Amino acid sequence: MTLTWSPSRRGPLGVYLHIPFCRQRCSYCSFNTGPYRPAAMDRFHSALLDEIDLVGEAAWAGDVTIGTVFFGGGAPSLLEPIELETILDRLRKRFALDPGAEVTVECNPESLTRAKAEGYRLAGVNRLSLGVQSLDDDLLVRLGRLHSSDDARRAFDAARSAGVDNVSLDLMYGLPGQDVARWESTVRGVLAWRPEHLSAYALTLDEGSRWAGEGVAGLPGEETVTAQYWALARMAREAGYEHYEISNYARRGFRSRHNQVYWRAEEYLALGPGACGFLGDVRYGNVKPVERYCAALEAGGLPLGTHEVLTPAQRKAEKVILGLRLSDGVPLAWLEDARPLVETWASLGLLEVAGDRCRLTEAGFLLSDSLFVHLL
């Protein structure tokens, strides 16, 4: 059994691999995760290799190259270097992995050592994404994180000493009890480390998280969250970072190539339980429970759970909305049917038109969710 859908072009594909295990589920987390157990990891690892083999048997697999690889989760840094190396080797066996491919691993600070970072690098990883979230130890405890601010700095230093020269840090704002000064302290601290990339997200209480079900006290008001957004934008700009996507900042030359696959509505493979992919005009997802995922592969089948065929109109709307998430913007012609909206947003300082392209401003980024509703 192989994938019945094929890419629409033979250009580079992205690959997303979901590693579903965590030592502890965070209070805000709504991702597809489960408790870490060595036996469960062993079974999953074997199943993931089988999935790579099955997908690699598709008729088109030999005609495409892999341009980016992203290990997400969960906590992918629970993988030992030899386990990760085996996965990358299997990808290289089944697909043409570009020698210059961007290969990213998400890491929890408490599980990243210098030896592990060096092992990842030697296996072919050239980018690490550290889930720092905050440098406020009280907030880290409340979030359910297992690391401290000192652990986060040690993990960053471990990556550097292991020779990793492309490190991204994940941060969160809008957290309970977090005022603007506490947020600025975290931003000031991580900017002093000079990472290549920052991702910063306002807290959302998504269905499936403990806080969404139980509630959480002390959340800051909208004015405070807005002030935190503007503080980060200002501080990152002053430190020389490009605000290239709504929630992402990079030093020159260090944009996340894999995430730009998503924002440019390009195609990517999904591997692992609950992973979602996009090929041709089909968005698909694997089954989420690890047990079902492994059982399907052990029975010789792919663990496919859902799929949706997008209409041309849906594809166009997605390309516009995702493209407007980037500071590069989109061709003005893509918004020809929405000219009144463009003019209104431009008059309000939310959008800029330059030649044949248009892009959201910083203020437009902040209001993007409400703006995009009008494009659907």
List the helices and strands and how they pair.
Blueprint: E1 13-19, E2 21-22, E3 34-35, H1 38-55, E4 65-73, H2 81-94, E5 96-107, H3 114-123, E6 127-133, H4 137-143, H5 149-161, E7 167-173, H6 180-193, E8 197-202, H7 210-214, H8 222-238, E9 242-245, E10 248-250, H9 257-263, E11 268-271, E12 276-279, E13 282-286, H10 290-298, E14 304-309, H11 312-324, E15 330-331, H12 339-347, E16 351-354, E17 357-360, H13 362-366, H14 368-373
Parallel strand pairs: 1-4, 1-11, 2-3, 4-5, 5-6, 6-7, 7-8
Antiparallel strand pairs: 8-10, 9-10, 12-13, 13-14, 15-17, 16-17
Q: Order the strands across the largest sheet as they lie in space.
A: 9-10-8-7-6-5-4-1-11
In the residues, how many domains can be counted? 2
Helical element count? 14
Radius of gyration: 21 Å
| Mean pLDDT over the residues | 95
- The fraction of residues assigned to DSSP E strands is 15-25%
The counted number of beta strands is 17
CATH architecture of the largest domain: Alpha-Beta Barrel
Full CATH superfamily name of the largest domain: Aldolase class I
| The CATH C-level class name of the largest domain | Alpha Beta
Could you say which overall geometry the principal axes of the C-alpha atoms support?
Answer: globular
Report the uncertain regions. none
Helix content: 25-40%
What is the straight-line distance between the termini?
Answer: 36 Å
CATH topology call of the largest domain: TIM Barrel
Helix/strand structural class: alpha/beta
Largest sheet: 9 strands, mixed
